Each structure stands twice: as structure tokens, then as C-alpha cells.
Amino acid sequence: MLVSILIIDVALVAWSLHLMQEAIAQREFSLMLAGTLVAASAAALLVVYFLMGSCLSHLTEISQHTY
């Protein structure tokens, strides 16, 4: 699962860099904004993945604990 998330994340970063290069070449603010938003979504994807992994491991640990 981690490998697929990393592949998607690398693809998003590559697309973001491509958009930003086009923005500089064409002097368009909208492409720069789009590139920034795609980069932010790539970062958010990793943050959510690690937060959910931590949360699920914590819940699994609690459910296996007997009182």
C-alpha cells in the first residue's frame, strides 16, 4: 500500500513541477497557483496516510488489550 501511495505522490509532485515550469514560461499566475495546489495535495496525501496508519495501529492495539 505504501508503494502505491508513494507512486501517486511522486506523480503529483512531477505534475506540480511541470505546471510551475509552464507558468514561468507563459507568465501565467493561474498555472503557478494550480502547481502549488497540486503540491499541497501531494503533501496532504502523505500526512493523511501516516496519520491514519498511526490511528489504526493504536485502535488495533486497544482492541487487542484485555481488561
How are the secondary structure elements laid out?
Blueprint: H1 2-26, H2 29-64
Helix pairs in contact: 1-2
DSSP, total strands: 0
Which stretches are low in confidence, meaning pLDDT under 50 for 5 or more residues running? none
Largest sheet: none
SSE-based structural type: mainly alpha
Q: Helical amount among residues, as a percent range?
A: over 70%
Quickly describe the structure.
The protein is an all-alpha fold and 67 residues long. The protein is built from two helices and no strands.
Could you characterize what this model shows?
There is one protein chain. With 67 residues, the chain is mainly α. The chain has helices spanning 2-26, 29-64. Helix 1 (2-26) runs antiparallel to helix 2 (29-64). The longest helix is centred in the C-terminal third of the chain and has 36 residues, at 29-64. The model has no long low-confidence stretch (mean pLDDT 90).
Which labels suit this protein?
67 residues, mainly alpha, rod-shaped
